[in-house]
Amino acid sequence: MSARTQERFSAREIRQYTFRAGLSRSEGGLMELISEGYTYVLGAVVLLVMSGAVVVGLRNSLGIGNGSGFVSSVLSPDFHAVSLLQASATVLLTLAGALLSVEMSVGPITMSVPQTAWWLGLPVRRRGFIQPGFLLSMVWPTAAAIAVVVPLTLGLPGAPQPGRIALAVLCGIGVGLLLYGVAAWAQITNSLRFLKGVAGVLTLVAPLTLVVTALYDNAGAGHSLSMDWLAYLPTGWPLLVAQGSLWPLVVLPAALALLLRAYASLERITTGRLRAAAAAGAYVQGSLLSMDASELSRSLGGGNLVGRSRVRLPVVFRRGTATARSIKTLISTHATMLLRQPAQLARVLVLAAIPASVASVAHLGNAILIAFVLYLCGHLAATTLGGTARFAAGNPAVDRLMPLPERTVRRTHWVLPAGGMTLWALVCFLLLHALGAASWPLVILAVCAGPGLGGATIRAAFRPSPDWTMPAVASPLGPVPTGAVRSFLVGPDLSLITLLPVLICLVAGGVPLIAFPIQLLLSTLAYAWGTRVRRRKKQGEGFLASLAQQQPPAKR
Amino acid sequence: MLGRRAYTAATMTKSRTPSTKSPTAPARPSVVRADKLQAGYGDKAVCGVVSFTVRAGDALALVGPNGAGKSTVAKTVVGQLEPVHGSTEVNGAPVDDRDIEFRRDVAVVFDDDAFFPALTVAEHLAIVAAGHGSGEVEEVIDRELAFFGLGALRDARPYSLSSGQRRRLLLAAAFVRPRTLLVLDEPEQRLDTAMRTALAERLRAEVDAGLALLVVTHDPAFLQTVATRALFIADEVRTMTPAQAAVAISTENPHAN
Predict the structure, then answer these.
(1) In the beta sheet, which residues pair with residue B60?
(2) Average pLDDT of the residues in A514-521
(3) What is the average per-residue pLDDT within B117-134?
(4) Do B127 and A270 lie within an 8 Å CB cutoff?
């Protein structure tokens, strides 16, 4: 930016200046970001290879057969699976709800918090600031439509022709952009806020219809519950196009008209709404970085609901030693915080039902797929129950109110997530058992993993933050702080290690006795690892400092 | 800069009132006019009804206890919040921060501790100065960095600064650009005493030169140095002289009950 000028800069020039000035002092590139996480990636690959070998060995020793575990189904042959049409329509409905919920919170018209603070007060046309983000973020619904509609239509009965699939994708893009346009219009005019609540409920409830249908159909009542009508909702129209209908393509001109109207009205949006969207975006970004389902849903749901709960648990205890009383008070406080957010508990229950929902769909009862979904849901449920621990990590002064050592406090944080995840594992595997996908020994093994997942929750909650005081790494999206990738991977790693025996046994199709002591050992290690308190290095400690102390004094 | 007059009670005796203006002086133009304004969130008001006019060369202080709604009123006046009732005009036009003229005239400093992590102190100021066409950008920036004691931190990044230094950076951003109305929310917060004194005296000089100032403050000395009038914000809003307001914020404690 020229220092000698009387000319006022345009929004475009200011935007470019901000971006380039930031990149000019970042170091390295994408490879640095990748190399940050390479030890984790390498570790995960080694773990997967070893797990594969163990699965093959187990299948042989249990006499299950020499067939590959990668294609084996975990369901019994007489299982009445949910139709692929219903499953696909449910997936589309859930994703549409999630997309609308995200867009109505973060806003199709997006800026970062610093951008709203430093750009919006400038006397230049705001379109230059707003338009690029608005146009760029159209990529997301488009990409999501392609990524989702193609595999779903490929799996439909009758093997649709490529031309039909292309039309279905076009319809999917239309639906995605229509939702995007609705959210943009709602953001510009500050209207249609009720849609956000509807979308949130849909996202939670829709996946449950699969497992409910499967349980009903397999209950032996002789009736079957068809929910194929879900495909006739606008979110399911791409499936109808893939099956031969053309009328759903009417969604394309409707989406285009709405987007054009929103584009023309971009500058009607107020600073207040842009700031609100930026704050929500920062919250969502933080929760995505921490892979935290609870924070993510809270950020998309518009924040905490405070002052409405009547849950009151005792916090003053008179029996026992001072330490025991303090511990009871802390646990009671954590329980109060958790019970005051029933939506979180509902979310944990929904996450427990999702592996069974996937297993209930025709051709999806594949052991590897269920294991993958199980891991993902397990970690998301664990982080959902870690809200109190994350709050404590961000506000350490609160924990210091109690006359307890840091390590004891950290272990106290473990109690509720451990209990909650044990219950989660029980519910999740009982549902899988009801569908015939899990044996009783596997249910017991999963329950043994619960306390270990509590350890992973605490490790994720107290993870180190990215370091903005170090040179940032250049990326196409701007500078990324040092340690961002490593920070992202702390927590999911321990969830994977803890769940490994369960996942291996699920894929292998049997549970040998040795799996129980291994699972208990891993859960104990996860507890110890997760609740470990890093000792802060004092000045003069560490390898480099000790080298410096060994150096002879410089000669004068 | 730091060798200025000590920031003591003696400063408070420099309090000014509108009566110091010559009665024959021509009417100064109205910059801000709030008409039966009620600030709040949604349809819930947080304080009483506010009506005032701030002319060029006026400094109106909003004072009152914590949580009374001072900052909410200030944010509503500049259009960052929707009013529950009433309206505000700036330079004769309804407040609308989507209007370029409004943004050209009105400089606002709230407690927004948000910065571009990869940009330096000087680059943050360059965005504002160049965006407003402030002329010799580098010179303007150097002058404000020197005034706010940030000269040595020109190439530092915001998150390596102390909270007080970041506050100075936010304030400096309001001074590297032209303005007819300046709205400050507790500018004295996190500043050391010398900086408070320097800022108060500079604001007073700018107000004397014709700036319209709306300032939220808890500091009696700052208030008396800078303000020409005050509004005590509570369930019932009262108009006061700066001296009365200084006494009120020092003695009225609504939290005592």
Answers:
(1) B214, B229
(2) 94
(3) 91
(4) no
